[in-house]
Structure formats: C-alpha cells, structure tokens
C-alpha cells in the first residue's frame, strides 16, 4: 500500500463515527495503529492485538486520531 494513497482523496472516516478495529502495530510515539480501508488510525492506550471500539476524534488528510469507547 502506497504511503500517499489517500492524498487528494476524501478520507474514509469522519469525526464522531465509531468502529470496531484491531490494533495492528504501534507508532513511534507508542500509540496503537489500526486501519480502516487502508486508512491509518492512531489509537492511544492500546496494544498490538487489542480489539476495541473507537470513536474518531480528529481527521487529517492521510490519517486520523481516535479514542477507545465503551
């Protein structure tokens, strides 16, 4: 998957939406990384393998930030 796949395209998530995701890896800052349709979602306070429900809090052009809910 190319790094800039979503550049110039509308992200597949919106602020306030909720999803069930699996944390695939950890980012440099220690946040969990999940993907929705290939789009990177950073989820703090998670570990690789966690299956969590998240709410999208902030959407950027190539990635988003979310928090665990529930």
Automatic annotation (TrEMBL):
Q: Which organism is it from?
A: Thermococcus waiotapuensis
Q: Name one Pfam family in it.
A: TRAM
| Protein name according to UniProt | TRAM domain-containing protein
Highest taxon of the lineage:
Archaea
The residue ranges of the TRAM domain are 12-70
Signal peptide residue numbers: none
